[in-house]
Design brief:
By secondary structure, the chain is of the alpha+beta class. Helices cover about 45% and strands about 15% of the residues. The protein is built from nine helices and 16 strands. Strands 1-9-10-8 form a four-stranded antiparallel sheet, with no helix packed on it. It starts with a helix and ends in a 17-residue tail after the last helix.
Length: about 500
């Protein structure tokens, strides 16, 4: 017990020491590592290549531009390890970025700082053969740094090749191989191009703004940094040993006060636990009383539920009997509705014996031997047209009564002097002018509007019967009436299924 108490006391003192020495610990925190930027230029740093001022040739008085693509080689004699896409008809081809996982046969190519670049061209107007336009053997260390991006000041009238590395944009030397320009596609790979090697690197030193130059790290500065790190590590070890010695001395002097503090803490805890025990005992007795009351209420509700279940079963039985009776009555009602609709269709179909509609062809129809044109009444007898429209009006009025469907535009039937009333259009202010004649009386616009209202009534009856017509077919008055009467003829003969959901007029039943 004494050993456990000592360990607990030492932990508390150590915690207190760490809190008091937080400022000292902050002084000896490890410094963040320095990031040294890389100044190397390897093949793995190459991002993309662009060419500028690829001069076109003049063919038959017109300039013929090149289709270009480029290939990368480890050496002039080695096969291409990368081939770009073809850029058509451009003097400044910019090729897309190299794929990150370049598939090189030799992994050592990634660490190489030399490569051979060949720019191939083709003029479709002259020949379909590809030939080498420019060939460079480049040392990446000898390139000229131009900046982070290409700027207008880098423009030139001569041919130029720009290499984009991860550290910025670099310009390649503008020396081409004359022999490579004259060689064809089959001979270009065998020609020895001019080499820009390490010996020539001094003539292509980087020209950088003095404000952007950073001093590189030297061996002496690195050794100084390592010495500082070793000194920092030894200081940290000394700090830890000193802190451990201080904690050990503090633990011996504060052991007695810690024991006294722990004794008082335990006494207070005992009193709190006793008080909590009394509260929980009181709550337990109260919960027991509530449990007894809830048990009695539960028993009472169980009896009520049992009685309700018995009444529900009896109600379900009565409901099933009523449902069976309702189904029988529904079946009988359906039979009556079907017979009533068949009778209704026969009555409506009987109108064809009074006003027979005959089809001469797909466009020409007659009613009682009278022709009725589709919209254009010029050249027809006015009395014949008024009589035919009167027959159609009478049929529409009778069908609406048999179907118990109120017409949107009420019809006043008076044989050849029938009329249609428009109570819907808000633009008509005079009640006397709301009635439009279905016969000529000197006002053609009223007569034409009355025919349109009559056709809309026929469309309403067709929609009620489930027959849809387009706006172009709205003026075909007799054709639409022929479709409507044919629908009722099919229903009266039992060829078309009668919907029992459609309402039946009280007059017909």
């Amino acid at each position: 017990h004494t050993h456990t108490h000592k360990e607990r006391k030492r932990a508390e003192v150590q915690k207190c020491g760490w809190e008091n020495g937080s400022a000292t610990a902050a002084m000896f925190r490890p410094m963040p590592s320095l990031v040294l930027p890389s100044h190397q230029r390897r093949m793995r740093h190459l991002v993309s290549i662009s060419a500028r001022n690829v001069r076109p040739e003049v063919v038959q008085g017109a300039e013929s531009f090149y289709d270009c693509y480029l290939t990368l080689h480890a050496t002039p004699d080695s096969p291409a390890f990368y081939t770009s896409e073809v850029v058509e008809q451009s003097t400044n081809p910019s090729f897309r970025e190299l794929d990150p996982p370049l598939d090189f046969r030799d992994p050592s190519v990634l660490s190489s700082h030399k490569l051979c670049v060949r720019l191939w061209g083709q003029q479709k107007a002259l020949s379909k053969e590809w030939r080498v336009l420019v060939q460079y053997d480049i040392c990446l260390f000898a390139l000229e740094y131009l900046g982070r991006e290409l700027e207008p000041r880098h423009r030139t009238d001569k041919f130029a090749l720009f290499l984009v590395l991860q550290s910025g944009v670099f310009g390649a030397p503008t020396q081409t191989s004359p022999s490579a320009q004259r060689a064809g596609a089959a001979q270009a790979a065998a020609l020895p191009p001019p080499v820009l090697g390490d010996a020539d690197a001094s003539s292509f030193r980087s020209r950088v703004d003095s404000t952007k130059v950073h001093r590189s790290y030297q061996m002496r500065s690195i050794e100084r940094m390592l010495a500082h790190q070793r000194h920092l590590s030894s200081s940290r070890q000394l700090l830890q040993s000193t802190r451990a010695e201080m904690l050990q001395r503090l633990s011996v002097s504060s052991e007695h006060s810690a024991l006294q503090k722990e004794f008082e803490t335990q006494q207070i805890r005992i009193k709190l636990l006793q008080r909590e025990l009394q509260v929980k005992q009181t709550g337990h007795r109260r919960a027991a009383d509530q449990l007894a009351a809830l048990t009695a209420e539960n028993n009472r509700r169980r009896d009520l539920i049992a009685q309700s279940l018995a009444a529900l079963e009896q109600s379900n039985q009565t409901l099933l009997e009523q449902l069976a009776l309702c189904e029988a009555q529904t079946a009988a009602l359906r039979e009556r509705l079907v017979s009533a609709q068949h009778l209704q269709s026969k009555i409506i179909h009987a109108l064809t014996f009074i006003y027979p509609i005959e089809m001469k062809n797909s466009v020409h129809f007659t009613i009682c031997g009278l022709s009725l044109p589709n919209g254009d009444f010029a050249g027809y007898d006015d009395e014949n047209i008024a009589t035919a429209l009167g027959y159609v009006s009478h049929m529409v009025v009778m069908i609406s009564k048999y179907l118990d469907v109120p017409l949107r535009y009420p019809i006043k039937y008076m044989c050849s002097r029938s009329s249609v009333k428009d109570d819907i259009t808000p633009d008509i202010s005079d009640q006397k002018t709301r009635e439009f004649p279905l016969y000529h009386r000197g006002k053609e616009q009223f007569f034409d509007f009355a025919v349109v209202l009559l056709n809309k009534n026929i469309q309403q009856l067709l929609s009620y019967c489930g027959i849809a017509i387009s706006k172009e077919e709205l003026n075909n008055t007799l054709r639409n009436m022929y479709l409507l009467m044919d629908h009722f003829a099919e229903q009266s003969k039992g060829r078309k299924k009668v919907s029992v959901d459609a309402p039946v007029s009280s007059s017909s039943s």
